[in-house]
């Protein structure tokens, strides 16, 4: 059984994005994948009204959630649905979260992770200013879930810069970590590979880094370079830009041996309140 990450250059049109994502998921299934990770904003990159989109999905009138369940059932895949705008469960009128869903091969939701760290930053690119908090509210919980390929910790994009989150996921038993992303061209070229390899090395987890890679509405350009990085920090596969499906296998025995030879988790000499008081879904 293998793991797949999917790279896209999503646009604002939801139906077109879903058609492309389905084709790429089919390729992942053909390559033997049991778990596939879609990129951040896979269904609606640059959508004009995330609140309306999220409200429709929460009320059962949107296209994304039914499509997701059908794709998982048809292909026999566990899918990490990158992110989509969704309000909190039970509150459809609230500000949406950048929500990453894990569904199983029956199309049933297994876990929901709402992005904890929102990208409010100034970047030296053509856009210059990013304020994710204008459209989204932050999440509040860590999420680790069991899958057929290992225990999965869930994160999104800007989370990569906060090592304490990844250490908390490892402490909660994570063996794989999903990172659907849409790094800017500028920040990606500077830090993307360094960050995903560092998070893999310090947690001794496989990093499933599914990225947006190309040009999007409003002139935004994302860095791409989707990758699977193993628990020793080795990059097993990578794609610079454009649509792609990347697959690799998890070596369970090697991961266990690495953690035994270098038991970093048990070597911690100090604690951080955010790790020790972490709240899991």
UniProtKB/TrEMBL annotation:
Pfam families: CN_hydrolase. GO terms for molecular function: hydrolase activity. This is Carbon-nitrogen hydrolase family protein. Residues 1-252 form the CN hydrolase domain. The keyword Hydrolase applies. It comes from Stutzerimonas nitrititolerans. It comes from the Bacteria. Keywords: Hydrolase.
